[in-house]
Structure formats: structure tokens, C-alpha cells
Amino acid sequence: MKLLMVCLGNICRSPLAEGIMKTKLPGHFFVDSAGTIFLHEGEHPDKRAIKTAANHGIDISKQVSRPVINADFDHFDKIYCMDIDVYEDVISKARNEEQRRKISLFLASAGNHENAEVPDPYWGDTKDFENVFQLLDKACDQIAIQLRSIAHNS
Ligand code: 4NP
């Protein structure tokens, strides 16, 4: 099963989500991330995201930012969006109903309906990055449980 984590710049939230999710799933799951804007294409994640992940023993330093491309909608089974603006942007790029069905709001998929958006830490400080890490970590746990059970039953 192939999962794509998507945020705006692909340098803060989705690289963290990718790095965390990879630690929760067995190797036959493929996890990648992308952004809805081209601004940071080719860059490694934000230094604060790299540091926050490293504090938890996860290396995201080699990831490289890239925008979402049309082929992603065919290649990936699940496309998780970090906030509502990102979700609306990604949905608008999908070309048919099958592709639209793959797209969801990450925290809503994890069962967190009250606060369905991962806040953007880009304009914040290291505490905001740590808060995002904790939010993503809990949500990844929930989603990993769901995905393992889907993979087991199919
Ligand atoms: P991300 O955070 O979407 O979590 O990677 C951002 C990164 C860059 C910008 C905004 C948000 N930016 O405006 O450059």
C-alpha cells in the first residue's frame, strides 16, 4: 500500500508525517510526501522540522521537497492532507471519482474530528514544531492501526 502525505510547502508538516509514519508501518508500505506549492522544490525539510524529528530519533534530513503531480493520483492508494486548504487544492487536481476517494484530511482519518487541521508551524517556533510532532505521532498511530487491518484483511 502506498501513502502520500501532503501539506503546503512539503518542508514542515508532511516531511514529519512521512518520517513518523515510516516508523509505524512494515517495509512493504511505501510512504512519501509532497506539497501543493512549488516554492521549496528541491529543498530539504526546514531545519526546525529536521531537529524536532531528530529529537525523537527520526532522520528526515535527506527528504527533498516536491510538488504534487498528476501521476500521484494514480500511483498512491491514500493521499492524506494536513489542512483544509491543502485538501481543497488536492481534491481540485484529482481527475475522477476514484482519485477523489483516495484523498482525505489526515486528522479526520485518524478519528480526530474536533481539530481536523494540523497547524502550520512554519511561522512559529520550536515549541510549535514539537506540538505538531506530537499531533502527527498520535494520528499516525491511529492510521497505522487502520492500515495494518485493511492490509491484513485484503
Ligand atoms: P508546510 O509549511 O506546508 O508544513 O511545509 C510551510 C512551509 C512553507 C511555507 C508555508 C508553510 N511558505 O509559505 O513558504
From TrEMBL:
CDD domains: LMWPTP. The keyword Hydrolase applies. The keyword Transferase does not apply. InterPro entries: LMW_PTPase (IPR050438), Ptyr_pPase (IPR023485), Ptyr_pPase_sf (IPR036196), Tyr_phospatase_low_mol_wt (IPR017867). It comes from the Bacteria. Its EC number is 3.1.3.48. SMART domains: LMWPc. It holds the Pfam family LMWPc. One of its GO terms (molecular function) is protein tyrosine phosphatase activity. Keywords: Hydrolase, Protein phosphatase. It is an enzyme of class 3 (hydrolase). Signal peptide: none annotated. Residues 1-146 form the Phosphotyrosine protein phosphatase I domain. The active site is at C7, R13, D120. Belongs to the low molecular weight phosphotyrosine protein phosphatase family. This is protein-tyrosine-phosphatase. It comes from Chryseobacterium defluvii. The lineage of its organism: Bacteria, Pseudomonadati, Bacteroidota, Flavobacteriia, Flavobacteriales.
